[in-house]
Amino acid sequence: MTSEAMSIVVDVTSVSNKVAQDENLNGSSSTSTDQDENIYEKIKKAAQDGDIERLYEMIAEDPNILDHFDRVPFCETPLHIAAEKGKTHFAMELMTLKPSLASKLNVSGFCPIHLALQNNHSRMVRGFVALDSSLVSIKGRGRVTPLHHVARMGDAELLSEFLFAYPSSIEDLTIKCETAVHVAVKNHQLMAFKVLLGWLKRVYKEEILEWKDEDGNTVFHIAASIYNTEMIKLLCKTAKLKAKNLDGKTAMDILQTYQSPCFPKGRRLLHSVKERLLSGSTTTLAEYLRKNLTFMEKRNKFLGMSNLSSIRERSLKNSKRNDAILVVAVLIVTATYQVGLSPPGGVWQESSSNPTTAKNVHHAGQMTMSFNMALFFLAFNGFAFLSSLYVIILLIIGLPMWKLIYGSVAVLSVAMLASYATIFPTRYSQLEGISAITFIMAFRLMIATMLCATFVAFTIDKCRRHRVDFPASCFCS
């Protein structure tokens, strides 16, 4: 009986001790929670007041105080508060200490730079971008970036600074598939639209004007729907007039609803003629893919490239063989051109004087070879020369400044023809004369075919791709 009583006493004591420990643990955890809440309230108060000194005092008390905000996916950080209140210096200091806070979304889906823009704190926004230019492209609620926001508000100066700070932001899309250009036009921001249009022209990205939103509307469709005549005039020079939205309407169809009802037949005729003259017929992407390959597409296939930009970029990254082909072609052109100017055996330095027979007649600058040997030599040398030039044209056509290089190739071909005509040996018989004339004419024909056929094929292929009702950025030359 005594032993049972003693065991009961021991059990009660151990249980009471355990309860006391649990109470102490709960008390310490609640105290710790209260302390954390107190610290967060203090740092938020410092952010509201922009008190940098107080910020460093709290960091001295708890060096990990700013790390707590990284553990929560969505929360309101002190940087959000400073951005909303316009405390620029505090925000810059905090962003320097903890850069990750600049990309943190609050529970409403906004980053600090979004809040600064919404509250018109332009100086703070410029400070954010100066410290981290990628913030221009950060996505917030609705995938809206600061560039979209500035385009909607129409701040042309800030918009220009954003474009130069982070150029690729012009390609960012909202959840409605709208670019900054769509947003500017939809909100009647003419100055912002002009800035964006000027930027696109200067960076050779006019194809962004053909991008469509979730309803299939291009920028031109939207300008027509709000009937902004100045925007329409600017877009007529660059946009596709026959691009259709998901309702099957072109921008001209939308614009038609704003025209006077007088003379409907005459108006429809004028509308039809204008479209045919300015843009021609368009095709869908499916119709384009169903057609046979054009000459330029066969060229790309032969060279291991693709007319589709994404595939072409990957192939170019994986291989440098096109560069190797270009180098070899240039070397062959150089060698054959040099040999054409200085053939084997050299040329006569002076004309013959008092020749004993007709076959001893020669003129200064002509080849010392016999006619038959010279004909074979020039034929093979000329073929190698023109073939290499043709490869160079195929590789450079469509690249920046390709027209200048194309013209240089044409001039070089004519110069080679003139050299051949000059160094050709004297023709002693009628057959040799016919052979020489045939060779020169064939060389001319090959030059004309090489230059004209390639240029015409490139032009036709470009027009064909331009008619496709799909972003031009998906196609390459």
UniProtKB/TrEMBL annotation:
Transmembrane segments: 324-341, 374-397, 404-424, 436-458
Pfam families: Ank (PF00023), Ank_2 (PF12796), PGG (PF13962)
PGG domain ranges (all copies): 319-421
SUPFAM superfamilies recorded: Ankyrin repeat (SSF48403)
Keyword line: Membrane, Transmembrane, Transmembrane helix
Name of the protein in its database record: PGG domain-containing protein
